[in-house]
Every structure is written in structure tokens, then in C-alpha cells.
Amino acid sequence: RDGDEPAPDEEPSSVEWKARGAEHFKARRFAEARDAYGEALDAEMASDYAGGKALASVLYANRSACQLKLGDNDAALVDASRSIQMDRSNRKAHFRKGEAFFALARYGDALGSYQ
């Protein structure tokens, strides 16, 4: 084992969970991706956001995309909103929020999110 690999009993880092989430998402395993992004968020919170709020924002936006694919539009809206709270400049988060509003037939709100 080289020095960069975690010890077998170590929990994966938020970045490692994020990578797993991305792999699941690309393979269209959206529930597994959602869970991996959730684990990444848990790891980030446990480390007091050591990866920075921008990373947490990306994780929430990615989990929001999974929620949308799974048809859980309310959860997608919550995650997109959290993503924006962490980083207001995250354009994907604003897009996901608009998508969630649209899926919830809240068209005026969706339009506001897209602008």
C-alpha cells in the first residue's frame, strides 16, 4: 500500500465519496449516487467543512440532480437551496432549483431561478 491510500479501517473522504457519486450517476444508478453524495456531505460536516463551502455547494447540487432523476422534487428543491446558501455563484445549483420548481409546477419560481 502506498502512502496516498487510506488505511483499510479509515472512512472514505468527502472527495472519495464525491467521486463514487459521480461514477454511480454516470452509470445511471441515481439512488446509489444520491447516497454517495449524502456520505460526502456527512464527511464534510464532520470535518467542519474542511473542503470549503464551495465543495459542499457542489455536493448539494449533485445530490439535487440525483433527487430530480429519482422524481423526489421536494428533496431536490431543498438540496438546490442548500447548495445556493453555501455558494450563491453556483450556477448549476440555480439551474437545479429551477428544474425542481418546474417539476413541482411552480413555473413562476422556476423562471426566477433560471434568470
Walk me through the topology.
Layout: H1 14-26, H2 30-46, H3 53-69, H4 73-86, H5 91-103, H6 107-114
How does this structure look, described?
It is a single chain. The protein has 115 residues and is mostly helical. It has six helices and no strands. It has helices at 14-26, 30-46, 53-69, 73-86, 91-103, 107-114. Helix 2 runs antiparallel to helix 3 and helix 4 packs antiparallel against helix 5. The longest helix is centred in the first third of the chain and has 17 residues, at 30-46.
Give a brief rundown of this model.
This protein has 115 residues and is mainly alpha-helical.
Indicate the radius of gyration in whole angstroms: 15 Å
Number of helices: 6
In whole angstroms, how far apart are the ends? 49 Å
* Overall 3D form: globular
Note the main sheet. none
**Integer average pLDDT:** 92
- By secondary-structure content and strand pairing, the structural class works out as mainly alpha
Proportion in β-strands = under 5%
N-to-C SSE series? HHHHHH
Low-confidence stretches: none
Task: Give the total of beta strands.
Answer: 0
Range of helix content:
over 70%
